Amino acid sequence: MKAILGKKLGMTQIFDESGNVIPVTVIEAGPEVVTQIKTVETDGYNAVQVGFEDQKPQRVNKPLTGHFAKAGVVTKKYLAEFRVEEGETYELGQVITVAEFEEGKKLDVTGVSKGKGTQGNIKRHGHHRGPMTHGSKHKRLPGGLAAGTYPSRVFKGNAGPGRMGRETVTVQNVVLVKVIEDRNLMLVKGAVPGNKGGLVRVQYAVKGQDK
Q1: What is the C-alpha separation between 96 and 78, in angstroms, rounded?
Q2: Is the separation of the CB atoms in 26 and 187 below 8 Å?
Q3: Bridge-partner residues for 8, per DSSP?
Q4: Using CB atoms within 10 A of its CB, is residue 52 exposed (0-12), middle (13-18) or buried (19+)?
Q5: 19-22 long-range contacts, Cβ below 8 Å, gap at least 24?
Q6: Strand 21-29 relative to strand 185-189: parallel, antiparallel, unpaired?
Q7: CA distance linking residue 23 with residue 190, whole number of Å
Q8: Alpha-carbon distance 97 to 20, whole Å?
Q9: Given this model, what pLDDT does residue 210 score?
Q10: Are strands 115-119 and 162-165 parallel, antiparallel or unpaired?
Q11: Is residue 169 within 8 Å of 110, Cβ to Cβ?
């Protein structure tokens, strides 16, 4: 599986052996615990459900309280599911940490991007602005969207103003630069989606992995 949940702590920079600066995102990943094991026989597919970050029992509803009790683990704040590759075996209550990840490998990191609110078409889609000369009434407006006579309407899907951001985004093939086991930290090269403190899913890259 080689997947883990974590929180984005922010960005910083480190230096490699040659003295080059590497911008990195710091992720506090795990430890997470296995709360459910799904199989083809019982659920139609193989997967593992994991829980991350302890939660006060009074903040968890009764169905989830029973779910955690059945697995023999303390209540968790976040739950996520990862598909299991053939041959991998896990046990209820098993703890997964950053120690299982190897430095230099490529990762896919999924998170919820920062919300920008309602934005115009220029910021949202990168459209060009109109002429800025004296008398121009078309500086940052969307411009013509449809023919007047036929079809006399705007087609669905036209890029225009609207809500921007707060979408699930995955960055692929980011390099795991460093693992700090005693602090449950992963340093990945470059930026990853989300605000500081946002939940992210980290797993080995599906494509582009170096052998």
Answers
A1: 15
A2: yes
A3: 27
A4: buried
A5: 22/177, 22/189
A6: antiparallel
A7: 6
A8: 29
A9: 62
A10: antiparallel
A11: yes
Cβ neighbors of 65 (< 8 A, separation 6 or more) are 57, 75
Q: Cβ(181)–Cβ(98) under 8 Å?
A: yes
CA distances from 44 to 41, 83, 85, 119, 207 (A): 6, 12, 14, 43, 25
Strand-pair partners of 112: 168
In degrees rounded to 5, what are phi and psi of residue 190? 85, -165
What pLDDT digit, counting tens, does each position of 64-93 carry?
999 999 999 999 999 999 998 776 788 999
Neighbours of 138 (CB within 10 A): 12
The helix/strand/coil state of 135 is coil
Count Cα neighbours of 130 within 13 Å in the Cβ-side half-sphere.
Answer: 13
- Complete DSSP assignment for 86-123: TT----TT-EE-GGGS-TT-EEEEEEEPPEEEEE-HHH
Report angle CA 113, 118, 122 to the nearest 5 degrees: 90
Question: pLDDT per residue over 86-144, tens digit each?
Answer: 767 889 999 999 998 999 999 999 999 999 999 999 999 999 998 888 888 888 888 88
Could you tell me the two tokens for 33?
Answer: 């615990």
Report the sign of the C-alpha dihedral through residues 196, 34, 67, 81, in that order. Answer: positive
Contact call for residues 99 and 32 (beta carbons, < 8 A):
no
